[in-house]
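Just curious: can you write whichever protein you like plus the matching structure tokens?

***
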Amino acid sequence: MLRPRIGIIGNSYVIGDDYPAHASGTMNSEAVAAVAGAMPLLIPADPRFVSVEELMATFDGFLLTGGRPNVHPEEYGQPPTEAHGDFDRARDAITLPLVRACVETGQPVFGICRGFQEMNVAMGGTLHPEIRELPGRMNHRMPPDGSLEEKFAPRHCVHLTEGGVFHAILGDTSVMTNTLHGQGICEPGERVVVEGVADDGTPEAIHIKGAPGFALAVQWHPEYNAASDPVSRPLFEAFGKAARAWAAGETMPALRIA
């Protein structure tokens, strides 16, 4: 039997001084293939090359990956500032309408880090440009030094809503995560349900209320060490189950998966 096809949103890079490329971390493909049990395929997130309609007709689910560029604040009604950092307007042009289309149809979508922020903005929410500058908040950014293992190590606890979707999937209301982000949710979008928060109140896990299919996102990085991490593995297993259901012609909300 053919595996379901998961479209992994790629990021734009410049290799060397002048060679433009689309790329995604290998750990994203590993998590999709080894844990979700699906075929990972990289999407060049640029409307010059693909359309949302084509993507919806081609894939059985989508992984919205992390990335250094941020969602442009004009997408949520604010002017850009230096604090907002770098942008990728081509990715914005693909992912934001793609999220809305998936929420409408029930096609599985799983957001990670920037993907978490994209899902909130796509549903009408806003973002803080720099979480660590808010009173009482921790610095959630990736440590600048250390090995990959040290950078992606679990850093803090996320408290999950009892009886919620994430509680059902993960089997606990408190989990350790490898949060690595500078921006975060300011105002949740319409239908965005915050189910997980850090000790400092920063939203870390969301689902889209009333979505007919899998529509979850986390602000941490479950793609790292997904096969053996007790928090990451159930999330990707649930995502894969939803993608297999979609490939078979069925929509499967996250609570049914759990």
